Amino acid sequence: MDWLLPVSRPGETPVRALTIAGSDSGGGAGIQADMRTMSLCGVHGCVAVAAVTVQNSVGVTGVHEIPPETVAAQIRSVVTDIGVGAAKTGMLSSAPIIEAVVAECADLGIGNTGRGQKIPLVVDPVAASMHGDPLLRSDALDALRDLLIPQATIVTPNLDEVRLLTGINVVDSETQAHAAEKLLELGAEWALIKGGHLRSSAESRDLLTNGTERHELTSYRVQTGNDHGGGDTLAAATACALAHGYSVPGAVTFAKRWVTKCLESAYPLGAGHGPVSPLWRLLPLGS
Length: 287
Ligand code: PXL
Prior knowledge:
- Helices cover about 35% and strands about 20% of the residues.
- It is α/β, with parallel strands linked by helices.
- It has a single domain (about 15-275), classed as UDP-N-acetylmuramoyl-L-alanine:D-glutamate ligase, CATH 3.40.1190.
- Helix 2 (about 70-80) packs parallel to helix 3 (about 95-110) and helix 3 (about 95-110) packs parallel to helix 4.
- Its EC number is 2.7.1.49, 2.7.4.7.
C-alpha cells in the first residue's frame, strides 16, 4: 500500500481540496462520492454545492439549482480562508452556474487562468446520470465546452461526454486519440479519455495526453453493475493527488488504482445501481 497518499498526523492541518458539484441524496455520486474519497485519501474536502438532486439508486427525479452567486461565494469563502491545493468540478447544471464558477476560479487562480501561479482544476464534465437522467441543461453545453474546458488542468469525460463535447464516438484507440486531440484543441491542458465504457475490451485502457506526452494507463476491468459514482471518484482522487503536489500523470496513475479498489469494493444498494466504495480503506491495510 505504498502507493497511497501520505496522511497528516492527528491535530495537523491536512492537505485540502475543493469540490464544486451537485449533491446526490442517495449518497452514491456527486459531492457525497467526492467527500468520501477525499476523506479516505486523508484530504480535507471543501464544498461548493452547485445543485441538489433528488435521487436514489433507481434515478433522478428532481434538480434544484443553487443561485450562481451563491456557488461563487462558496468557492471564494473557502479558498480565501482555508486554502486548497486543487479543485474539481462535477455537476454544474446550468450555463449561468458554469459562467459564475469559471469567473470565480479565474479570479482566484484556479485552473488555466493564463496567469503564472495556479491551483490545478480537474473538470469532470458531468452531463447525465448513469440512468440517463440529465444533470446538465442542453443549453449549457456551449458554456461547458467554450468556458470551462479551456480552464481545465485536466478534463476527465466518460465516453458519452466525449461524444457530446467532440462529436466523436470512441470505439478504438484511434478514435480515443482523436477525441483527446479535440479536447486539447478546446483548451484543456491534459485530457484523460477513459476506456471504461468500451465494453468489448477486457481491460480498461485510458489515454492521458497533453499533446506532447502520451500515457496509456491500463487496469483490468472490474465487472460490476454497482459503478455509480465511478467517474466522480476518479476525478476526486486525481484532485487529491494534485493537491499533494503530484504531477498530472502521477495523480491519474494514483486515481486509477484508487478507483479500481473502489470498484472491487462496490456494493448493492436499493433496487438500482449501487456505488463504488472507498470504505475498503477502513480495513486494516493488506486485508
Ligand atoms: O456520476 C455523475 C454524477 C455527478 N453528480 C451528481 C450525480 C451524478 C450521477 O448520478 O447525481 C449529483
